[in-house]
Design goal:
D-glycerate dehydrogenase, Rossmann fold, five-stranded parallel sheet, globular, hydroxypyruvate reductase [NAD(P)H] activity, D-isomer_2-hydroxyacid_DH, binds glyoxylic acid, alpha/beta, seven-stranded parallel sheet, 2 domains, glyoxylate reductase (NADPH) activity
């Protein structure tokens, strides 16, 4: 019999079609978010589970894994919703979908880096609301991007892709990462490494977050660290909301201790702090970093390749190891 693959959310049509050709698939046709019970049920029945970031696979849910479940092939690169260590203890392999969303997510970060200082959304809203009374020398002034210092927190694939873009806009690239880049990569990006995140934050004009959310990066931008930023600095987050202490960020924005923020992710998605909704100097997006047809089809293709490799007895290309 073909392996039973249970997919928790609606995926792009070409991906679902291909899955149906290859496996015995159970799709989520009405795309409702799985309840905890449904997740546990799927764990108990499936040979392969294809979850995504809206599914919380903690150790309790994982404890419902049935005897046939061997692979959790996540649709998405971030795996902070999965207790990977607990999955491994149960002998489950976990895979994700890196690389194929790197450029699109970096585009979204760059879009926010441009949009917030140049007041793009605020201006658009004003024009649309019919409140434009004409050009004047002092109307809607924002701040220049070129020549400013961009501090990248987390210099993986996405962080580096942002660095390449930002250089094209004349920004000076700075970064903090657990590990320093190889000298050749660092010099190709003309990036300055800061071993101390605190020291970097104190000197940046724009800070953009590109590290994964792990126990080590939860509230990495804590109230204390955010307070190191200068009042003219902007914060951009396209990674995970939990990396920033959102309450502290909101407090600082409302007290004028930061110039603005561009946020594609939030601590309690899909909830957005209502105070943010009232601020003109923030751009808020509903987690759209990898939301292109191309990325989502490619992510589905990666899921298929990981499942196929695993079922054929090979090591799937995108295994996620505990603590990675
Ligand atoms: C999207 O946020 C992902 O992790 O793929
Ligand atoms: C994510 O895929 C990263 O490595 O930046």
């Amino acid at each position: 019999a073909k392996p039973l693959v249970i997919v928790t959310r609606k995926l792009p049509d070409p991906v679902e079609t291909r899955m149906m050709e290859l496996f015995d698939v159970r799709l989520n046709l009405d795309d409702h978010p799985f309840t905890r019970e449904e997740l546990c049920q799927a764990m108990a029945e499936a040979d392969v589970l294809v979850p995504t970031l809206t599914d919380r696979l903690d150790s309790t849910v994982l404890s419902h894994a049935g005897p046939s479940l061997r692979l959790i092939a996540n649709f998405g690169v971030g795996v902070d919703h999965i207790d990977v260590a607990s999955a491994h203890q149960r002998g489950l392999t976990v895979t994700n979908t890196p690389d194929v969303l790197t450029e699109d997510t970096a585009d979204m970060a760059m879009a926010l880096i441009l949009a917030v200082p140049r007041r793009l959304v605020e201006g658009e809203r004003l024009a649309r609301e019919g409140n434009w009374t004409g050009w004047t020398p002092t109307f809607m002034l924002g701040h220049r991007i070129s020549g400013k210092r961009l501090g990248i927190v987390g210099m993986g694939r996405i962080g580096q892709a942002v660095a390449r873009r930002a250089r094209g806009f004349g920004m000076a690239i700075h970064y903090h990462n657990r590990r320093r880049l190889h000298a050749a990569t660092e010099s190709a990006l003309e990036a300055t490494y800061w071993e101390s995140l605190d020291q970097m934050l104190a000197r940046m004009d724009v800070v953009s977050v590109h590290c994964p959310h792990t126990p080590a990066t939860f509230h990495l931008l804590s109230a204390r660290r955010l307070a190191l930023l200068r009042p003219h600095a902007y914060v951009v987050n396209t990674a995970r909301g939990e990396v920033i202490d959102e309450n502290a960020l909101v407090r600082m924005l409302s007290q004028g201790e930061l110039a603005g923020a561009g946020l594609d992710v939030f601590e309690h998605e899909p909830a957005i702090n209502p105070r943010l909704l009232k601020m003109d100097n923030v751009v808020l997006l509903p987690h759209m970093g990898s939301a292109t047809v191309e990325a989502r089809v490619d992510m589905g293709e990666k899921v298929l390749i990981n499942i196929k490799a695993f079922i054929d007895g090979h090591r799937p290309p995108d295994r996620v190891l505990p603590g990675a």
